[in-house]
Every structure is written in C-alpha cells, then in structure tokens.
Amino acid sequence: MIFRLFMLLPVFAVVLFLYGAIVNIGYLEENRCRMTYMFEHPQYTRLPVRGNERFPKYGLYAYSEGSLTQRVQQRVFTGAPVLFVPGSGGSYRQVRSLASVALRKGLDNNWQTHLDYFSVDLNEELSGVFGGYLQDQTDFLELCVQEIARLYGSRGRPARMFIVGHSVGGKLAQAVVGRRETIVRHVLGIVTISAPVDKPVVLLDHYHQSFYDRIEQTWRANRSVWGNGEANTATGKLPLDGMLVVTVGGGIRDIIVHDGLTASRYADVHAMTHNIPNVWLSVDHLCAMWCLQFVLVMNRFLFSMVVPQGRGSYGFTEEKHIQLEKAVRILSQPFAGAHDDDDDDDDGGGVSHDKRALIQHHPEQEDWVEDLRRSFTERHRAGMDRTRVQMIRLVPEKPAHRFLRVEVINSEQSHWLSGCAAIEVYGNSRMCQRAVSLVNYTLPVPSSKFDRFGALLDTHELKRWNPSWTHVLVKIPRSFKPVQFSVDVFNPAEREINLTMPHWFDYRGHTILHDASPDDSYYRINVHGMKYTYQTIALDLMAVTCDGIKGTVVVKVHVPWAKGYDRYAFHEELNQTTVYIYPPIETPADEPVPIQVDVHLTPGCRYRIRYAQSLRVSIARIVQQHLVLLPAHCIALVLLAFKDQLSQTAHDDPVFVVGKLRSSLTKPGPLVVLLAFSSLIAKFLTLFKSIPHAGMLSTPPVVSVLLHLAALGLLVIATLGLWGAIAFCANFAHKIILRLIALPIPVMSSTFLSCIHKFPLAIAVLLVAIALTACGGVSLLCAAAVYFVLLSKAYEDYLENFVFHTARRIAARLFGAGRDHTEGEQPTRPRRRRRRPANETGDELMVINFHLPLFFLVIMLALLNVPSVITWAKNYHHANTLQPDPALVPALLVLVCLAVLWQLNTPRNVRGYELLAALLVIVAFVSVLYCQLHVYRLNYAIGIVFLAITVHQIIAPKRRDVAEEEEKEEEPEEERAGHEQIENERDN
To answer: Which ranges carry the GPI inositol-deacylase transmembrane domain (predicted)?
Structure first.
C-alpha cells in the first residue's frame, strides 16, 4: 500500500505540470489588445548594405506605404531614424504596426515631425534556442547601423537613431552598441520589448552563455549600474552612460519570457505593459508587436523626443535628461510623493518653490463649494455648464481626517488638484486667487472608456509642509462630457488590512472584508510572507449591492523590492472579479517588506473581499519559469536508477546480473537521496569560493520536490510506454523507422534491417558520417531510431528463446527427454557445472535491461539538440552542414561509444561495476547542481557516462568463480586452453 501511494505522487506531479501548461497557454488572462489596422498596402524596400556579401541571407529594409514608397526608393529620409530588430524566429515585417501608426501620425501633422522606420531581416532564425548565429547577427546589425548613418550623412546631417529590439533582438541591440565607439556615436538609445536582457530564458548551447558573458563584461566596464533601480542622468562618466536604455516587459500573458527576465541592472527605465498609462494590460510575447494600445504609446514616446534639425529634417534630441523625462512621463508612473524628493530645501509636498506651478482662479466664472462630508460622490451625466472648485478642508491632528482619496473622470485640465490658504472671500464663499498645483500627486487610473485620474494624499503631512494651507481644491472645468468626482477622507488604520501568505498546502478561502460601506472607495491590503515567484494569491472582489450603477474595480499591486514592476488590474462593469497577486522576482533576504495592494472601489457599491492561495496560477508560473530545469532532474534520476541496476550483484558473486529499470525507478531510495543530499551539497559548496555557484540554490525547495516527482513520473510513464512499444509494436516499428531513415524501397529497407542486426558497427560509422556532413542532432535522432530497432530485435530473440526453453521443459516433463543416463547407470565422472554469465546463456532480457537506460540517455541527448536540428533544416538551402554545431562533439563521443557497445556482447561479466556505479552517482549530483540552468552541460555529462561505460566494458577484468579456478588448475593444460579459447570467442 505504501509503495502504491508513493507511485501516485509522481503521476500526480505530471498531471499538475500538464495542467500548468494548459493554464499558461490560454487560461491566465484574456487578450484585450485591439488590432492595429492599416490604410494602405505596406511596402518593404530592401536597402543595399556594404559588406552584405558576408551575410547573403540577411537584409535591411525601409518601411513605407503608398506614394511614400517613391521617396524611400530614392533614398530620401528626412525623419528621425528608428531601427527595428526582430527576435527569435521573428520577421522584419513585424515592424508594420509600429511603422504604420508612426506614418499615419506624420501625415496627420502635415509631415512636420515624423519617424523613418527601418527593419532588419535575420532570416527568421531561432536565435533564442540556438546561439550559433548570434555573432553573425550582431555583425550584420552593426553594418546596418553604419549604413543608416551613411544614408543620413549623405545629405549633410548627422543621424543618431533609436534601436527597438523585440525578444532576442533587444539583446542584439545591447550587444551592438557595446562593441566600439563608432557605433555609440550613431545610437542615442535602445528600447527592449519582452527581451531576456540580463539572463537568457534557457541555455541550450555554450554560444548563448559566451554571448551573454561578453555583453556583461563590456557593459560592466562601460556603463554604470544604477543603484536600487534609480536612473543616473549624469553623462560622460562612462562611454555608455549617455545612452538611454528602456526595458519593457509583457506581464503574466508572456509565457515565453517571464516578467522577471525583462528588467536590466543597466536600464534607465523599466516598465511593464500593465503599468504603462493608456495600455494597462498584459500582452503576450508576439502580441507586443501589434497591440494597438502599446503601439500608440511607444510611438508617442518616440515622437516626444523628435526635434527639428533644419531644412525640413528631423531627429531625436540628444539631451539625455529630456529623453529620460519623456520616458518616465509616458512609459512609467510620473508620481512624486512627499518623500520622493530628498532635497532638504523643498517644501510643499516635496516640490521646491521654483518648480511649483501656480494656478490662477477666477471666482466670477467658478462655483466654489465646500462640503463637510467625509465621503461622497457626485455625477453629472450631462456635463457642467460652469467650472466647479470643490473645497476639501485640511483638519490636522485628527486621525479620521488624515488620508484623502480623490478621483475625477473626464476632467480636461491637467492641474486639477491644488492646495491653498482660502482666506479671501468672494460673495458668500471663501476662496483663494492663487493655488499651488499638486499634479505631482496625481496618477492616471486605468479605464477603457474615460479619462480617469486619482490622487492619494496624506493631509497631515501636507499640512506640515504647508502650515498656511487650509484646503485642498479639486477643479472641474466646464464640459459637455459626463463628469464624475469622488472624495473619500478616512483614517488609514481603518482601511488597512494585513494578511499572511498561506502555507504551500493551504488553499482555503478567507474573507477579509465582509461588507464595505458604500462610501468607501479605497483599501490597502498588505500581503506578508510572499518570497518566491510562484507564490500566488487570488483576490476575489464581489459587488454585493450597487445603487443603480455597475461596479468598477481598480487594483494596484506594488512590489517594493521590484522597481518598475507595479501592476494595475482593472475590471469594468463586472459584479465579481479576481486579481492575482504574486512577486515578479524573489524577495531579497534583507528586505522582508509586504506587497502593497491598493484596491479602488466604485462609490455606491458594497463589496466583499476574499482571498485564497491560487493553485492554478502557482502551478502555471512554476511551469513557465522552471520547466527548463526538468531535463537535469530526468537525467539524474536515470543515472541513479542505472546505478541501482548495476548494484544488485554482490562483490564476490561470479555472475553479474542487471536489474530492471522500472523496478529501480519506482524505488523511493534514489529520489530521497537526490532530494536530501543535493541541497546539502549545494550549501556545502558555497563555503569554497573557488567552486562555481550551484544553480540549485536559486530553486525553491517546494519547486525542487515537484520537479523531482514530475521527472520521476515522466520516466516511469516513458518506461512503460517503451516496453509496450517494444513488446507489441516491435515489428511494425521496425518497418516504420527504417522507412523513415532509409530509402523508400522495400528491398533496401529489408537489406538495411539485416545490416542493423548483423553489422551495428557499420551503422555507427554511417551515423558518424551523418554527424560530420549534416549536424550532430540529426545523427543522434537516427541513433535513437537504430537503438530502438536493436532493442526490438533483442526482445524478439528473447521471446523466441523463452518459447523454445519452455517447450523443451514441457517435453522433458512429459517424455523424459534430455536425460543424460539411464537408470542404474552411474556416471564414470561427475560433470563440472560452470556458472556462466546470464547473457551467455541467452538471457536477452538482461541485455535489454542494461541498454534501456542508455537508450533513454540517447533519447534525452537527441531531444536536447532538437533546436540545432530545426536550425539545420531551416538553413539547409544555405548550407548542407550546420556551422557551428554545438551537438557535434557530444554526438561523436556518444556514437563512437555506441559503436563499441553495439559490437560487444554487453553487458560483460566483468569486475568494476561498483566504481562505475559510484561515477553515475557523481554525475547525477553534478547534473542537478550545475546543469539545471546551463542545460547544454548535460550533453557533456551524458558523453562522460557513455565514455566511462565503454571503457569499463573494454578493459575491465572478468569475474571468476573460486571453485571454477580450482577445477581449472586440475585440468590438463590443453583442455584449459580450449576452454579459455571458447570463452574468449563467446565474449567477443
């Protein structure tokens, strides 16, 4: 019963992983992006690039539409240049949405300011999973930058461009600007969109690792690292400090590059699309290039930096502080509270006197209204025929009047919030002629229908900075649009809720607010104990009753230790909504601060708030962020199971026996050993500075356990499936596989089948030739197919021998066949019974047990190198051989070893399996400790295992029985030599 319960855990883990993958694909959050439509047919004009003969498969294109194509063909470019770099598998045509919107905007303003979009064609290469082409792409991108500079320089004006890189294209942009000073002179800044900037998504080859290492070394030497994410506007300190770097992430819908990888320590501004004003939503990896809300904002940011350069030409401003100001205002939240400015000479809420904007009031054209209610909402659906100034009194030293939450809808004035000393009188109302703007406290609030702004003020702190002030003013200008404003004065202690992240096994629901007052518009929820990125809380907000209106909920999630990762979630006209709260990056050890969740409710509605740990989103985030770690766990468990198979024979036993793979996998011992000792070893290795950091320390314990169980479940399922394929589909698989890897001629297929059975060494030589002339990954896939054919044949032989031996035993019982002498006869000499190895007695089942884990290792090695196979296939018309080939060396090593193992009668009855088992344990732990993130190292780990097994099978001495040795000493020398010759022939 305990064994059966243990086997349910790996199967359950596999089901959880499949469920998480399904949730990631389409059930996390709906896509609310609007399509970007075009008015004319797009035209992509290819531009000649000097030095392009080195890269014939790449190209540079200029975007245009309609009649403007003639200007491009004549090489007339007068706008500010923007170079778009596509990502992994991306096309140069992905620039269409950005370029088309920019072109329409240029036509609308009579071509006064406009952008010239260029796009790079990188042959849609999968540079995200194959790093062999990253260097060529960087070299060509450098040629493109120089060519665009020549296009503008030929007309006598300098051209400094912005590079917009999507996905891996953002990393290419970072690589090209750090190469030499001549490139830096042509590039003002880079914008990365959904790009893995400082860390790659997965390291499937060492080319990716060296590419990122080179960029890191260059930028570390030439670019300042901003402390705590604060941008440094000083230029001239280091060569790359004068360049604006903006990183943008897609949020929870981007399942390819998760949000924790999109930020950079070298970025001036980091923003997530769900926090960018007027975007307010998460976008998936490809949607970022056509989502209309994001495309409009990105072009607005680029246009905001365009300045005239004379003679009808335009370019980008070269003042970094202006660029940074535009980036913060358009792409980030421009909020500056009372403590955001550290200047001691400032007052007025942290804004110095020389920066404070003064608002002039005209009381004869305005209605001044002071309402003594603490919380109220006013709606004017037909608009307002006169400007209204709502006065909110500052009441110091009273906790109930400490915080003020104000929100306005459709206010057409930017400086709608101000403060003053209302000591003047006009008519029957108190008023002030001048007021100080508090625009630095205002924030745009997400809405898809209205212009909505809000502010949260600490009135006691405001009064302390401005002792003479008596009121905060909300100015609503006259308008024919529907207008609404709400005021909520409250004690923050009454609106603050604290909750703690439940344990990993606790998924119960908890109600934290039963029935909020209809006048309550704001609550702050502090979530303590959220440390890991997979931890997720589902916050359910339900509108119990509403006074004739439809509820609108806006939730802001602020993660204090992750600057730029604030997230807005808004839901309109819904009675119930769910918001998921999670940390995008792990909590620093020295910063145990809570996540702040600001909930903005619709006045007039009563809400109920519940929370619970979300299993579906937690599993989805584990799959999204940690799926790349699964191969290392699978290989480690296969090696430990193989070690258990080889360790089932006693040291002094003359006959070596191989255990069953399925039995070894289902034993809890290897799993417990891997779980218990890997973490201890990783922590122990941190004591030695010379030893590299173990990647396992960055994986949460719960995730490690789940990965181990999922890997074990996959292996058990795969083992059962493979045995089923071998047992029931051997002959059918023979024909199918051979027709796939051989010529489609029946005679040739049967001939090839007999060659595989009779001459495995010749097949191995053919596979080596495939690796050298095509790519290593293709040869490994073929080797896996051939291996399956050999295992199927071994199983067929086992069945034949099993039937034959069973029939002989039945005949012996029924007819007395096989007796050596008749009754009454005594043998003249007792026959010596020598115990021979099992594989010498025709036990093909043990042969299968020995080769099955090796077959799994070959399959895993082939799967790890599938990206290189796809790359080779996509570029076959350019080159027959993949260059460079990260799988070539591991493939050649494994194929040479397979040639020997297939040729020998393995497993041999030799000594030294104990040392081999110890090596397998060491490689298993190394795989978990150092190959989880650096997946490409598994290639060499598998190669080392095959090399060790092959060398052991060749040079290890044979096992000998003591009794057999004594009998051999008594035998005549000629007979002993004959026995040795026979044994050698059998071994060979």
So the answer is: 702-950
